[in-house]
Specification:
single chain; 277 residues; BirA Bifunctional Protein, domain 2; SH3 type barrels; 5-stranded antiparallel beta sheet
Length: 277
C-alpha cells in the first residue's frame, strides 16, 4: 500500500517587499536558505507547513514563513503566541548529517542572537538550550524561541523542521505572557527592519549550520558559551523521575548537555525544562 498523500497546503501569499529585498541583498550569504521561500498570510504552524513540504519532496533549506499562526508552538508543548504583524514566524527544512544533530538547536540559538545583533545592534543572551533573552538577571524577558522537530518517512526521508519565532514589535500578548515577553522594537525604542532581521538570522544560521556539517561544532559551542555567560554559574532546578533537583549550571558538554554541579557531583541534563534561579 502506498503512503497517503500529504495534507493540502494553504494558499501561498506574495513575499512581502521588505522581506524580498532584504533576502535578495543577503542571497550570497544564505547558503541553502536562498533557494525556496514559501510565504503565507496565515497558517496553523509554519512547522506543520514545512513538514508537508518535506513529504512533498522539498529540498533542504526550504523556508516557510507566515504573518500569523493560529497554533504556533514552542518547547514543552507551550503555545507560541503569534499576533499578526508582530513577529517573524519562520521554519526551515534541514537534512543534517548524523554528527550535526546534537548541537543543532544550540547552533540555531547562537545564529538568532548573532543575526539580531547584526541587524539591530541589540545584544542578547542565551538560556539553555536555545531561548534568546534580553534584560538582566533581575528581569529576563524572552525575545525569541526555537523548536526543532525531527521526522522520518518513506516519502520525506530523515529530516528536521526548525521553527523560529522572533518578537519584532510589541504585540497583544495574553496577560500570562506579556510580563515575560520582549520585542526588538520595545527594547530599542525605534522601528526595526524585519526583513534585515530575517536575512541576518538566516545568514548566521547558514554559517553555523555549515560549521556543524563540517564537524566544527567546537566553534558553535564556544559561541554559545559566550552568549550564555551571564547565566552560567547560577542555580537551576529541574525534574527527573518525579523529583525536583537543584544545582549550579556550569557549562555545556561536547554534545550540548547542560552540566550542573550538585551535592552528588556533576549531572548532565540532556532534555526537559530547566528553571533558572
Amino acid at each position: 500500500m502506498s503512503p497517503p498523500d500529504p495534507p493540502a497546503l494553504p494558499r501561498r501569499a506574495p513575499l512581502p517587499p521588505d522581506l524580498a529585498s532584504a533576502l535578495a541583498l543577503a542571497e550570497p550569504r544564505l547558503g541553502p536558505f536562498s533557494r525556496d521561500v514559501h510565504w503565507y498570510a496565515e497558517v496553523s504552524s509554519t512547522n506543520d507547513v514545512a513538514a508537508v513540504l518535506a513529504e512533498d519532496g522539498a529540498l533542504e533549506g526550504a523556508v516557510v514563513g507566515a504573518e500569523t499562526q493560529r497554533a504556533g508552538r514552542g518547547r514543552q508543548r507551550r503555545m507560541w503566541h503569534s499576533p499578526p504583524g508582530a513577529g517573524l514566524y519562520v521554519s526551515v527544512l534541514l537534512r543534517p548529517a548524523p554528527h550535526a544533530m546534537a548541537l543543532l538547536t544550540l547552533a540555531a540559538g547562537v545564529a538568532i542572537a548573532e543575526g539580531v545583533r547584526a541587524a539591530t545592534g541589540l545584544e542578547t543572551m542565551l538560556k539553555w538550550p536555545n531561548d534568546v533573552f534580553v534584560g538582566s538577571a533581575a528581569g529576563w524577558r524572552k525575545l525569541a524561541g526555537i523548536l526543532a522537530e525531527a521526522g522520518s518517512s518513506e516519502r520525506a526521508g530523515a529530516h528536521v523542521i526548525l521553527g523560529i519565532g522572533i518578537n519584532v514589535r510589541p504585540g497583544a500578548y495574553p496577560p500570562e505572557v506579556a510580563g515575560r515577553a520582549a520585542s526588538l522594537e520595545g527594547e530599542l525604542g525605534r522601528a526595526v527592519d524585519r526583513g534585515a532581521v530575517l536575512a541576518e538570522c538566516l545568514a548566521a544560521f547558514a554559517a553555523r549550520y555549515d560549521d556543524l556539517q563540517r564537524g566544527a561544532g567546537d566553534r558553535v559551542l564556544a559561541a554559545w558559551r559566550a552568549l550564555a555567560a551571564p547565566l552560567l554559574g547560577r542555580g537551576v532546578e529541574w525534574g527527573e523521575n518525579g523529583k525536583a533537583l537543584r544545582g549550579t549550571a556550569e557549562n555545556v558538554d561536547a554534545n550540548g548537555a547542560l552540566m550542573v554541579r550538585t551535592d552528588a557531583g556533576i549531572v548532565k541534563v540532556v532534555s526537559g525544562e530547566v528553571r533558572w534561579m
